[in-house]
Amino acid sequence: MKVRLKSVIALSVVLLAGCSSQGPNWIVGAEQSHQWGYYSGEPVARWDSDGRTMTLLSELRYTDPKGETWIAPVGAKVDGASIPRYLWSLMGGPFEGKYRNGSVLHDVSYDQHNRPWQDCDRMFYNAMRCSGVSAAEAKTMYYALYKFGRHWKFPIKRAKPLTPSELLAEGELPRAIPVDTNEVNTARDWIRNADPSLEEIEQRANAR
Predict the structure, then answer these.
(1) Which of 75, 88, 125, 166 is an S-S bond match for 162, by CB 3.0 to 4.6 Å?
(2) What is the mean pLDDT of residues 165-179?
(3) How far is 189 from 117, CA to CA, in rounded Å?
(4) What local confidence, expressed as pLDDT, does residue 151 receive?
């Protein structure tokens, strides 16, 4: 019991890193937008018995720069799988350092499939910047996810998004492209030297 309590407390501390450490970037309960948005709530999670996934015991909210709210609800399971494993070597793991909160939200948004994947990846970029990740690191992650992420077709014309099982049944859930490590490294060098916009990053990912 003591071991489980310690793991819950430790993980809650891990997941709390975010805009609160960035001084004026942290706006509790604010309704106005900020350059990188802001987090709300104090997420607590526990490791599941499989040793791979975590279950959220409290809610994490993130409001992006456009005022859109992204929620990782109580009971959501996260494992970092929305980020290709190779990229973990670039960021030190999805639940380490400044990527933690953004990774949790990205996992949940990828599982829900209720928004276009492009919006989910853009949210992750903004959430990373909100948490203090450098522009070069966040843009490299954004490029890699845009190029090699586990994407899906979003049926905009439908009355509501299809569930993942429905998408699979219709053959509309594409598999991720295997990560090309050389391409990611080349893109990282380009990003560091050219400091491209996100639109330029998307164009490069689509062209190659």
Answers:
(1) 166
(2) 52
(3) 25
(4) 84
Question: Would the pTM count as exceeding 0.70?
Answer: yes
Q: Provide DSSP, 18-82.
A: SGGGGGGG--TT--S--TT-EEES---EEE-TTSS-EEESS-EEEE-TTS-EEEE-TT-EE-STT
> Cα separation of 146 and 166, whole Å?
23
- CA 136-81-134 angle, to 5 degrees, is 15
pLDDT at 82: 84
The token pair that represents 92 in the structure block: 């030190």
Task: Quote the CA–CA distance of 47 and 24 in Å, as a whole number.
Answer: 32
Token pair 């450098």 in the structure block, residue: 134
Structure tokens at 169: 């049944």
Q: What does the alpha-carbon distance between residue 172 and residue 156 come to, in Å, rounded to a whole number?
A: 13
Which residue in 97, 176, 105 sits closest to 137, CA to CA? 97
What is the three-class DSSP state of 195?
Answer: coil
Taking the C-alpha atoms of residue 173 and residue 169, their distance in angstroms, rounded to an integer, is 9
Sorted by where each begins, the domain ranges of the chain are 2-207
Q: Give the highest mean pLDDT range of 16-20, 52-56, 148-152.
A: 52-56
Which H or E element spans position 3?
A: helix 2-15
Cα-based angle 63, 102, 201 (whole degrees, multiple of 5): 95
pLDDT in the model for residue 43: 67
| Kind and range of the H or E run holding 11 | helix 2-15
